[in-house]
Amino acid sequence: MYIRSPEHLSVPQAVRAVLASNTMYLQALSSGIANYTALAQKIKTEVEKITGIEVQLGTIVVAIKRFADTLNKERQEKDKLIINYSLQGARLSLTGSIIDVDFEDRAFDEISNILDEFFEKESGSYNIFQTNKQLRLFAEDIEEIRKIASIASKKFDGKITEGLSKIRITLPSSSEELQQPNPYYNILFLVSDILHNNQIPLHNAFFDRNEIVLILRDKDAARSYELLRAKMSTQ
Questions:
Q1: Domain extents for the chain?
Q2: Using one digit for the tens of pLDDT, what is the confidence trace for 164-185?
Q3: What does R_g of the chain's alpha carbons equal in angstroms?
């Protein structure tokens, strides 16, 4: 509940007091789904009680919009601070000549055993991502890896896509950061915005708490890397 001042508040102050005291109103304003006119009608009586005067609906609408703009600005500044903090110590790497081997609806345990046995003996860079119905292998397209990937692909009806590159963003970790998951989602939004604004298509992407892996076409990878590096260096 808001606390009424001994002296009457102005309309903007009264509107802020009413909206700030209601979590549902704040969530609607923060998410951008609030109808200002409908909201003004809901809080008109409360605003008039606080101000001690009759207030025009349009005046309340204007006050609501200004308050919403303030909330949005504060949120953007907070998000920027979170991103800046999270990118401290982040590392960016680019690996070319990547192949994507896609196995769908197969005996994944058997596939995994074959691949694990091979990669234990190899030093090449690779990533394996598995869901209930799909296993994806992203590996450097070098002779030995290509050989085992081709064998596994033929045996388990896999599909090989070449001409890819991998960008890996490794995020710093600390006991403090591990308690705050939001920074990682903000970084994901930052990366998505950069690629979207520059019309760069993704072949695939994976992430966890400390790493974001982007798979792109070779022709897009170098440009994407430079855009990401430039953006991160300015944060």
A1: 11-74, 91-234
A2: 999 988 877 653 444 444 556 6
A3: 26
- C-alpha to C-alpha distances, 82 to 53, 102, 129, nearest whole angstrom: 42, 36, 28
Q: What distance in Å separates the CA atoms of residue 41 and residue 61, rounded to the nearest whole number?
A: 9
| CB proximity list for 132: less than 8 A, separation 6 or greater | none
Residue given tokens 């070319």 in the structure block = 96
- Domain 91-234 is in which class? alpha beta
Q: Can you tell me the distance from the alpha carbon of 93 to that of 170, in angstroms, rounded to the nearest whole number?
A: 8
**Average pLDDT estimate for 187-191:** 78
Highest mean pLDDT of the ranges 11-25, 116-130, 145-159: 11-25
- Give the DSSP letter of residue 211: E
**Average of per-residue pLDDT across 26-54:** 91
Can you list the positions of beta strands (E) in 49-195?
91-104, 126-130, 134-140, 159-170
d(CA 30, CA 26): 6
